[in-house]
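[recover] target loaded
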């Protein structure tokens, strides 16, 4: 099949990114949606689990946590869990936490399977021809190719699908104080912890079970505050 320059331009622009400019993301997503209209359905299917790394902010927790569904529009996910975990690091100054979402998309949620495109010999040939004609514009296209396991989806974010959250353990001295460990023994204990791969205070992911426990506790605390507020209003 023929792969148009419109598709190449749109895909390259999408992969170049928008530097967190949401208006630019909306523009690029519209271009991409228009460009993939004529593609064969096999490029709009994903048959495996997908992952999305996302920093969570206070203003969106109601949708993600309480409603269990925040629609983001057209966004990139990955089929590579390890890539999702390292994407943009573990911490962002204005974020509550970093989260890894796990989702198996339905066909109507798939905009484009970029990995599948690069498996197609005709697409690779068309991309190389595009690169010859438009070398500058093709740079993002060939820089990323399918190395990120990227798929473009419209799948919502759901707290029930969070499999990891970033968090730090208590500072080492605080833990020692709680355990009653004397100062003279702390250096030796800290060295052994580091050697075994356990470094207190280090930012890291907590697993699915712990993440879901945090989410459940958050929901419970929110409802407790709502009930307390309503009770206070009634007393007044």
């Amino acid at each position: 099949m023929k792969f148009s320059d419109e598709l190449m331009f749109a895909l390259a622009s999408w992969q170049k990114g928008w530097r967190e400019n949401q208006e630019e993301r909306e523009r690029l997503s519209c271009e991409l949606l228009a460009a993939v209209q004529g593609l064969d359905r096999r490029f709009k299917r994903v048959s495996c689990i997908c992952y999305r790394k996302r920093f969570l902010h206070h203003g969106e927790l109601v949708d993600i946590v309480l409603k269990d569904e925040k629609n983001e529009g057209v966004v990139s996910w990955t089929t590579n869990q390890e890539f999702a975990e390292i994407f943009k690091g573990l911490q962002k100054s204005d974020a509550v936490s970093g989260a890894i979402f796990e989702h198996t998309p339905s066909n109507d949620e798939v905009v484009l399977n970029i990995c599948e495109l690069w498996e197609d010999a005709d697409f690779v040939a068309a991309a190389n021809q595009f690169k010859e004609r438009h070398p500058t514009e093709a740079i993002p296209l060939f820089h990323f190719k399918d190395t990120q396991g990227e798929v473009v989806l419209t799948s919502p974010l759901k707290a029930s699908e969070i499999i990891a959250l970033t968090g730090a353990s208590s500072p080492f001295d605080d833990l020692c104080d709680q355990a009653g460990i004397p100062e003279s023994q702390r250096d030796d204990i800290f060295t052994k912890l580091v050697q075994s791969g356990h470094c207190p205070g280090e930012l890291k992911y907590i697993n699915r079970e712990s993440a879901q426990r945090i989410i459940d506790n958050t929901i419970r605390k929110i409802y407790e505050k709502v009930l307390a507020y309503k009770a206070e209003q009634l007393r007044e």
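[recover] notes: Confidence is low (pLDDT under 50) at residues 168-172.
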